[in-house]
Amino acid sequence: MKLNTLQKLYTDELRDLYNAENQLLKALPKMAKAASSEELKEAFEKHLEQTKGHVKRLEQVFEELDEKPKGKTCRAMKGLIEEGSEILQQDGEESILDAGIIVAAQKVEHYEIASYGSVRTFAHLLGQNKAAELLQTTLDEESETNELLNRLAGSTINPEALMETELAGAGSSQ
Ligand SMILES: [Fe+2]
Questions:
Q1: According to the CATH classification, is domain 6-160 in 3.40.50.2000?
Q2: Ligand 1 centroid to 100 CA: how many Å?
Q3: CA of 174 to the centre of ligand 1 (A)
Q4: 21-48, pLDDT tens digit by residue?
């Protein structure tokens, strides 16, 4: 397909997102399971429910375009999830691992925020107002999730990880 119109680029990006969201549907339960903090677990469980809604909204956006919902392997999301899963396989202190899981989750959210911001703008430019609204709603939820992760990291998980680090360092020069 020749990318010679904004419409095609828009559709292409929507397919990337559709695939990315579906990959996330499978990854989020693993992240919830791996998290030690109850609040972090809950955040992932809540985001899993939201993500199901994101998939549905994308399907509505495809409907607006008279296109069948179709994904196109999002290699970026694949890489982000693969990298994140490395931390899930490691042994270590709970708070340090939770801090690492938050880093991985925030990388995912930032990727999604960039993508949704772009497709929302394309939808506006193309006069797809209903689609723009749907995409904005999802964008807002991604931003709220990112903020929630910031709050969890700042209020409890990073301070606990630091305390753990200080305890671990008490008897060594590390
Ligand atoms: Fe999402």
A1: no
A2: 20
A3: 39
A4: 999 999 999 999 999 999 999 999 999 9
